[in-house]
Amino acid sequence: MSDIFRIEDETLRIMVPKDLDHHNCITIRETADTIMMQQNIKEILFDFQHTEFMDSSGIGVIVGRYKNMKCLGGTVAAIHVNQRIRKIFLLSGLSKMIMIYEQEA
Amino acid sequence: MRENNMIIEFDSRSENEGFARVAVAAFVTPLNPTLEEIEDVKTAVSEAVTNSVIHGYGERVEKIILKASIKENTVSIEITDFGCGIENIEKAMEPMYTTRPDLERSGMGFAFMEAFMDEIHIESEVNKGTTIYMNKKIMG
């Protein structure tokens, strides 16, 4: 597994790359779904600490995981969300859909 | 700066989405934009180029033309593809509307372009292609 994906108990932490665009979404989508199917994952946590750019493709990948986790009775959350990413979350309505943690639990 | 122009032609590969937005960001730098203005322009360019890659060409590799110009403190951007075109522009611009839910497209592309730029205008003809015109005044 690459350093993008980390399993912490029942949480799958996705270390979102510097740019979350259409190009980078493809691998994240496929790998996250494979891990979800194989492991007992209750939460997907998108960690934005290294992320500087995100566009609507990023919204798509988060909403997609949200839908899949909902089917499995799990949740999706985000952490280390900077001002720019927060703006994208707000504009897209994503901030109403998923939890945004201010800091590590 | 009074006036400056540039044209780039590149392949409709997804890795060029990043290249296109960074090229425009660098081109706009002489206007001393704020970080937020730069990010706004980058997001809008990324949305338009992604649309050409996914929808215009359906992931076939063809050419995308990116033009940008600066007049006074306004940046104008044109992104053209020669792909399938948009049948119903009004529909395409509706937030959350997408023709590719299979690719998990959020349908927010045009909404973001509208939100982050001052003006956006679309010209499209079915089976001929699409050009997106956008401009934004850089306040700095």
Account of the protein in words:
- The complex is a heterodimer of chains A (105) and B (140).
- Chain A is α/β, with parallel strands linked by helices.
- Chain A has a single domain, classed as STAS domain (Transcription Regulator spoIIAA, 2-Layer Sandwich).
- Chain A has four helices and seven strands; from the N terminus they run E-E-E-H-E-E-H-E-H-H-E.
- In chain A, a hairpin with a 2-residue loop joins strand 1 and strand 2.
- In chain A, helix 1 packs parallel to helix 2.
- The mean pLDDT of chain A is 93.
- With 140 residues, chain B is an alpha+beta fold.
- In chain B, 35% of the residues lie in helices and 30% in strands.
- Chain B has four helices and five strands.
- In chain B, helix 1 packs antiparallel against helix 2 and helix 2 packs antiparallel against helix 4.
- Chain B is globular and about 40 Å long.
- Chains A and B meet through helix 1, helix 2 and helix 3 of A and helix 1, helix 2 and helix 4 of B.
Record the SSE blueprint.
The complex is a heterodimer of chains A (105) and B (140).
Chain A: E1 5-8, E2 11-15, E3 19-20, H1 22-38, E4 43-47, E5 53-54, H2 56-71, E6 75-79, H3 83-92, H4 94-97, E7 99-101
Parallel strand pairs in A: 2-4, 3-5, 4-6, 6-7
Antiparallel strand pairs in A: 1-2
Chain B: E1 3-11, H1 15-28, H2 35-56, E2 63-71, E3 74-81, H3 89-93, H4 109-116, E4 119-125, E5 129-137
Antiparallel strand pairs in B: 1-2, 2-3, 3-5, 4-5
Helix pairs in contact in B: 1-2, 2-4
